Amino acid sequence: MRFDRRKVSEEIPTSSMADITFLLIIFFMVTSTFAATRGLDFALPKEDRNPPLIEKEDAVLITIRPGGAIEMDNKPTPFEGIHAYLKPRLEKNQTKPVIIRPEPNAAYGDMVRVYDLLRQIKLLEGKLVVREDVEPITDERWNGAKELNISIPTQREIDQFWY
Amino acid sequence: MRLQARNRARAVIPTASMADIVFLLIIFFILTFNLEVDKARVMLPKSNLRTEVPKRAAVVSITENGQMRVSDGESASTAVSGPEDVLSFATGVIAGDPNKEFILKADRNVAYKNVDRVLDTLKQARVPVVYLLSDQETVEGAGGGG
To answer: Burial, B137: exposed, middle or buried (Cβ in 10 Å; 0-12, 13-18, 19+)?
Structure first.
């Protein structure tokens, strides 16, 4: 048979492998980001031509002023006082909506701060609590607790449906 | 010559293990890979509650001066002139995939009216869920800064 009898190296040539893989590494390093992959989920209500009419009196209204000042039903309240203000009202009427109403020139960050706080408050066995209040608690039980009925109407909705 | 008489040392750097290490790194980067579709620099608001945003979600970004950019999550973001363009963009995306999630990447100092108008257009486009991109809130005084 006509084998090529020249000496053939028994090793797999791996010297170029490092070049290729380093190139790939550099590509992934440059194009990947680690920050900014987490956030607050916010389910948008379905666009409804005839939404259930919510009277202002039936809800807790949180106004956010430019500069970050907060008013609960038009009464100035510190950020730390939001939970205490909601507690008696929501424990009495558990389906009471909470409306966040940032003023046009209020900072977006202040709205997120309030929304974040409200998302951490839940109704567990009729009590308005944050998770730290009821520790130790299983994830399952905490996730099953009732979340607040938070609504952030847009300016157009307010113009359309409120008075 | 004496040199030839010497035992030949192999002039090779051992690279066999290099491939293992490098592949490990590649796998790590592939798993954490997340193409940055929007490069707008914003100071994100801070929150305690943060959930992982879905990959390939469409992005609407608003910088501090109100400049908006949109991306469908696949290609790089493009600047738009205002909320009207965001509406046509979002309608188009939702027409292609009615369950597409949107990410709102807005600066924490932006006036809420800008965010309000974007949220309103997303509602009109029947976007099911919006993720408000945020940074981790740090304990007061522990040097969060930003």
So the answer is: middle
Cβ distance of A18 and B117 shorter than 8 Å? no
Integer angstrom CA distances of residue A15 from A22, A27, B13, B27, B55: 12, 19, 10, 20, 36
> Which residues, listed in sequence order, are joined to residue B80 by a DSSP beta bridge?
B68
**pLDDT(A38) > 60:** yes
Q: What is the pLDDT of residue B142?
A: 41
Pair of tokens at residue A152: 């952030």
Per-residue pLDDT in tens (0 to 9) along chain B, 146 residues = 555 556 667 787 777 787 788 788 888 877 776 666 777 788 888 888 888 888 788 889 898 888 898 888 877 888 888 888 888 888 998 888 888 889 899 998 999 999 999 998 998 888 889 999 888 887 654 443 33
pLDDT of A107? 92
pTM of the model: 0.75
- Residue B84 has a CB neighbour count (10 Å cut-off) of 11
Helix axes B16-31, A15-31, angle to 10 degrees: 20
Give dist(CA A76, CA A115) in Å, integer. 17
Residue B29 to residue A33: CA distance in whole angstroms: 10
- How close are the terminal C-alpha atoms of chain A, in Å? 98
With CA atoms as reference, report the closest residue to B119 among B107, B136, B104, B98.
B104
ipTM of this model? 0.73
Which pair of tokens denotes residue B96?
């292609």
**Mutate which of A19, A23, A29, A41 to disrupt the B interface (most B C-beta within 10 Å)?**
A41
- Contacts A28 to B, Cβ<8 Å: 26, 29-30, 33
In A, minimum Cα distance to B42 occurs at A36
For chain B, percent helix, then strand, then coil, each to nearest 5?
30, 20, 45
Q: How many CB atoms lie within 10 A of CB B41?
A: 9
